[in-house]
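Researcher: Let's try something more involved. This one mixes different molecule types, so please make sure each is placed in the same coordinate frame as the others.
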Amino acid sequence: KAGVTQTPRYLIKTRGQQVTLSCSPISGHRSVSWYQQTPGQGLQFLFEYFSETQRNKGNFPGRFSGRQFSNSRSEMNVSTLELGDSALYLCASSAGQGGETQYFGPGTRLLVL
Amino acid sequence: EDQVTQSPEALRLQEGESSSLNCSYTVSGLRGLFWYRQDPGKGPEFLFTLYSAGEEKEKERLKATLTKKESFLHITAPKPEDSATYLCAGGTDKLIFGTGTRLQVFP
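Model: All components are placed in one shared frame. Result:
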């Protein structure tokens, strides 16, 4: 089975711009979660989508949003980028039953200048 | 507040020198305790899931154990290729990660 894929792998943006990241889950997985990883804060949960609905949300501002399509692919969007948004953005997929293993993609490295 | 704490932050071992990494957790409604390995610039790679106290799982040189408050990742006779950051996470409706243990194994 193919693993979780994320595109693009690297991105450079300037403050004030917006960005869209994409995630394709493992075939058959219906849940996609997004995490932000920074050296200072570690891995922090952004949100989770299951069957096209946001099921859980972390403590991030409204500039961070996401969506999921009927084929379970997911996108996350960050508007009005700030320097502090520079991070590795990871998505993870799981079957969606709750409490089962999440499998991570390689991440998208975002640099905001 | 749900919390996962890992220690030590960093660990240097000589090849063949066994040791343990600690993960203590306070997570309400815990559904599973997860261990991942992460290499620089890559996404976390799944290692183990533990669901109940007393459970143990092994994979090559790694063995994970779980109690009601802690989990341990034992590394037996490590090799340089085991060098990575090891992350544990408490699973509820999301994963709550510790900050990781950065392991370096030198020849």
